[in-house]
Amino acid sequence: MRRSGKYMFVIMFVLALFVGAGLCWAEWEDIDSGVTESLRAVYFVDNQHGWAVGDNTTIIHTDDGGYSWESQQCPVQSLQLHRVCFANRNVGICTESELDSTVLITRDGGLNWVEADALYELLEEKAVVVDISMPEDDVWFVASRKKIVKTQNAGETWEVSSEVVQNVPFRAVEAVDQNTAWFLAVAEGDNHDPAYLYKTDDGGNIWESLGEVRRNTELAATSRDVIWMYYYAGSVSRDGGASWYSFGNTLNVCPVSDNKAYTVLWDSLQYLYTIMLTNDSGLSYQNLLEVDYLTFQICDVSALDDNTLILVATHGKIARYTLDSSDVNEAVPAKAIQILNFPNPFNPATTISFTLPTDSHITLTVHDITGRKVATLADNFMGAGKHSAVFNGSDLASGVYFYRLESKDFAKSGKMLLIK
User: Fold this and answer.
1) Pick from 386, 365, 418: which is nearest to 12 by CA?
2) Spatial CB neighbours of 26, under 8 Å, sequence gap ≥ 6
3) Is residue 248 predicted with pLDDT exceeding 90?
4) What is the value of pTM for the model shown?
5) How far apart (Å, rounded) are the C-alpha atoms in residues 106 and 126?
6) How far apart are CA 412 and CA 15, in angstroms?
């Protein structure tokens, strides 16, 4: 299942476009979602039909590959929807955040949504649902913190598949067919607390422990052999979970086949998302692009096909990416652009140094934590090479600030702390 972030953000939309290993993004399209509420999750059942959900019971649907979206109504208001999953074009589930408990089911493509009363009964009142997996039209697995439950008749009736082990709550469930599934149990605490993985090959009657694994909170699988863990220290297994290879601080994994997957990595130092592509089940990766935190906050990603992604973000933002192997020399390599400030933290002034790979007209701006621009340090043509600018925060309050270097070919940001 694909997850969302939970951050305040600013309604700016600029793309930082980069090339990696012979590939580039030929198209980034800003799509009008028709809503302004933050969109927390998105799911496509094929290359045309998808749903996105978000704050204040926002549910929107597309039947043309994400180019246009229509709102769908729900009788339950003011829900903070954070997960959505569909078995086919008609039947789907969406749920609230991990702090709330409402589960909604549709059987007509989202025209009508009702609460999952049969599921509530089995989970003992409205227990918080943390994940959903729908490998077949009628066979679904649902994880609450204390139970893994399963339906074999599209939610008409439910049965308990597993209950919490050693008081370690469930966080994720993923199934590839009616027999093969995994669940992830994660101890509540800091990032050093353990996580445990379990697998079934008989539809959930018996769950085998695969032992302790790196702490993550999400699962995604494409077959009985290839499974991904993410939303912290991303890892991939090519033997059904017996052994793992780690690949970084990962917000999201969007697999499209056993070999091919898109990953969204988070760089907390530079406040950048990096979208990467693997064509060999995680053995190697190609950097495709970087998206700046101050321009587009990625909450979730869904693949329409091998080369097209839909990304949803805060403030109702939706983008559509199409991957193309042509024009690979037109963008600027990400590693060629360097920017940092010193000292950091600072009071009251700091020097922002940067290196340009080519002659460019650039802007260098500073923003506060809400995204409001507080200073423009440069807005002119500069030659390739090293440059610097001084930022003085004498008239500003203590706190976190972001600097942003931008031209028509790239955008790069960093974070700094003013302490008075």
Assistant:
1) 365
2) 322, 323, 324, 326, 327
3) no
4) 0.73
5) 18
6) 10
